[in-house]
Amino acid sequence: MRNISFNMTTDQVIRRQKAITRRFAWKNIQPEQHLQGVNKCQGLKPGQHPVKLAEIIVLDSQWEPLNEIIKRPFRKAKSAREWAAFKKCCGIQRDYSMIPCISETALEGFPFMTPEDFVEMLLRSNRKATEETPVNRIVFEYAEAV
Fold first, then answer.
1. What value does the mean pLDDT take over residues 90-113?
2. Helix/strand/coil (H, E, C) string of the chain?
3. Within 10 A of 116 (CB to CB), how many other CB atoms are there?
4. Which CATH superfamily is domain 2-145 in?
5. Distances 56 to 19, 95, 126, 142, 145 between C-alpha atoms, Å
6. Which pLDDT value is given to residue 146?
7. What is the spatial distance between Cα 73 and Cα 53, in angstroms, rounded to a whole number?
8. Among 34, 44, 47, 78, which residue has the fewest nearby CB atoms (within 10 Å)?
9. CA 97 to chain centre
10. Cα-flanking dihedrals φ and ψ of residue 12, to 5°?
11. Distance CA 34, CA 27 (A)
12. How far from 131 is each of 27, 69, 118, 121, 136, CA to CA, in Å?
């Protein structure tokens, strides 16, 4: 199983408060693919190993410009399975018809961050990127939730 690093959101994955991740790579990811979430993959010293956080299952993968999160900060789930993952990550206990969607930043594990601040944070972590750089928006659920 392939590792996926959650270095910037380790705590959110441990608490299961994340259901979306944006990546500047991951071109060959497929729905239903199982991935091992780890604390980090790169920069490990000799003898160090990644710490396993959670097994995840990819539900959807879509390429879009990074600043799409600013243009569309709220989106509807594409399926009942996505909606279930979103509700679980945000601690929603019941189905409320007046909540058609959840903020993208909340689903990324940052419920109090604005989309603009989120984009800025990602740009600081990847200095070669711009707001128009394509990112892969990956929606996932935790394997133990299946």
1. 80
2. CEEEECCCCHHHHHCCCCCEEEECCCCCCCCCCEEEEECCCCCCCCCCCCCEEEEEEEEEEEEEECCHHHHCCEECCCCHHHHHHHHHHHCCCCCCCCCCCEEHHHHCCCCCCCHHHHHHHHHHHCCCCCCCCEEEEEEEEEHHHC
3. 14
4. Hypothetical protein. (2.30.130.30)
5. 9, 23, 24, 4, 9
6. 45
7. 27
8. 47
9. 24
10. -65, -40
11. 15
12. 19, 10, 11, 11, 13
Instruction: Dig out the tokens for 71 from the structure.
Output: 């243009």
Residue 108 CA to residue 136 CA, distance in Å, equals: 13
For the chain, which residues make up each domain, given as ranges? 2-145
Of residues 101 and 114, more confidence is placed in 114
Cα distance between the two ends of the chain = 17
Amino acid at 103: S
pTM (whole model) above 0.70:
yes
